[in-house]
Amino acid sequence: MRKPEQELADIKSMMERSTRFLSLSGLAGILAGIYAFVGAGIAWYWIYLPGNEYVSATPVISSADLQVNLLAVAFIVLVLAIGTAYLLSQSKSKRQSQKLWSPASRRFLLGLFVPVVAGGLFSFALIQEEAYQLIASATLIFYGLGLINAANFTLGEIKNLGFGQLILGIIAAIFPEFGLVCWALGFGVLHVIYGSMMYYKYDR
User: Fold this and answer.
1) Which of 40, 89, 139, 202 stands the most exposed, by the fewest C-beta atoms within 10 Å?
2) Global model pTM greater than 0.90
3) 100: which DSSP letter?
4) How far is it, in rounded angstroms, from Cα 20 to Cα 117?
5) Pick from 36, 33, 39, 78: which is nearest to 191 by CA?
6) Dihedral sign, CA of 42, 188, 176, 138?
7) Integer Cα distance of 45 and 24 in angstroms
8) 142: part of which helix (H) or strand (E)?
């Protein structure tokens, strides 16, 4: 005969599966952090490294060639991160005999991507206004807000990651000269840390 505590745990687990997207892969977070860190390194090289063709005494991000290259790197990092998250989450869903696309996953994606898309459009507006020093801050802040919002529909650790991104975004806004460093810490280091935590807690 099953204990009442076990039955309650099973009911709670069923309710969580129906209301929360639990197929997020910790390994995807780790890899996304690595992609971002490599992308930040490339951007740093193009903008700041002495002797580079793009660099003058003061970095000029308004250079059309540099803008295109930086946007290309950002796009590649984004595609790799989203593609990896999709493939690994799909694999995790199959192992857990769950559907990847469900009302819970749709709520999660909507909660995450509305602020993220808004942040992307806002960043393009900053480029139009040549306010390049605020782009790192804007992407961190909007992404952090998206994670905090989406945490209501997935693993609770995501909310802490969102607050970390938000704090780094505010720091980058106050000290824009450290914007790229904050971006690398947020999208790179924090993703690796929280991805590792999620992997060892949920994926093994």
Assistant:
1) 202
2) no
3) S
4) 22
5) 33
6) positive
7) 32
8) helix 135-150
How many helices, marked H, and strands, marked E, lie in the chain? 8, 0
Q: Which residues of 91-106 are buried (b: 16+ CB within 10 A; e: fewer)?
A: ebbeeeeeeeebebbe
pLDDT, tens only, 142-156: 999 999 988 888 777
* 67 close to 127: Cβ distance less than 8 angstroms: yes
Query: Tens digits of per-residue pLDDT, 152-194?
Result: 887 777 889 999 999 999 999 999 989 999 999 999 999 999 9
Tell me the one-letter amino acid at 23. S
CB burial class (10 A; 0-12, 13-18, 19+) of residue 139?
buried
Domain residue ranges of the chain, discontinuous segments joined by +:
26-47+63-68+101-204
